[in-house]
Specification:
The protein is α/β, with parallel strands linked by helices. It is built from 7 helices and 6 strands. The chain is globular.
Length: 224
């Protein structure tokens, strides 16, 4: 039986004009994950990513840490994150202050959770985004492709918190509320594992950071 390794991207640039760039810490997290796998002889048979810059940069760091990975990369828009700005604007049209204090940071994510719940419930339609069913169908299509084409193989997948929590929710059959809660708990460069068989995907681990579980690297743990 194979394993699908779903990796959330490294720390991006929260609060910057362009969130879709890894920070220096995010690049270091990605390289460290690749090093961790290289130390343990981890091999992959296929690679999937979203098409966002932070996905590509995270994969680049992993490959650097691995010491190379001679495989074609299958980029799928179904692995791209939802547009959090569009979600927030749909329920709070006025500009929000920059989330540069703990309270404003918490407010930002409280509003985001509210917007996600309304989007998933079909009560808002954020501009430029698919509806929730369309987003979930995009994630499901990638999972089905992997299940059909790579049963018994090891697959690396780099994406974001939204698609990964959606994938976990689909495998476990969770409610929208639980899917949102899973999304909010995913940490940067965290690994979630599914076993792959021809019949189904099954959850093995969720949101692990074994590559950062050393005295040297514990301070590298981030979430945004």
């Amino acid at each position: 039986m194979g394993t699908l390794y779903l990796v959330r991207h490294g720390q991006a640039s929260f609060g910057a004009d362009d969130y879709d760039q890894l920070s220096e810490r995010g690049r270091a997290q990605s390289v460290r994950l690749g090093q961790y796998w290289r130390e343990r002889g981890q091999k992959f048979d296929a690679v999937y990513t979203g098409t966002l810059k932070r996905h590509q940069q995270t994969l680049h760091g992993i490959v650097q840490g691995l010491g190379g990975l001679d495989l074609p990369v299958q980029a799928a828009s179904g692995l791209n994150e939802y547009d959090s700005d569009a979600l927030l604007h749909a329920i709070h049209p006025a500009p929000l202050p920059k989330a540069d204090t703990p309270e404003l940071y918490r407010q930002h994510f409280r509003l985001l959770c509210d917007a996600l719940a309304q989007w998933m419930g079909g009560t808002i339609s954020p501009q430029g985004m698919p509806d929730w069913n369309g987003f979930a169908d995009g994630v499901h299509a990638v999972l089905e492709q992997i299940r059909h084409q790579h049963a018994g193989r090891n697959v690396l997948l780099v994406s974001s918190g939204g698609p990964i929590s959606t994938a976990v929710g689909q495998v476990l059959g969770t409610s929208p509320e639980v899917t949102i809660a899973l999304n909010m708990r995913l940490r940067n460069s965290a690994v979630t594992e599914f076993s792959i068989s021809p019949k189904r995907l099954m959850l093995q681990t969720f949101n692990t950071l074994n590559h950062l579980d050393t005295e040297e690297h514990r301070s590298w743990v981030t979430s945004a």
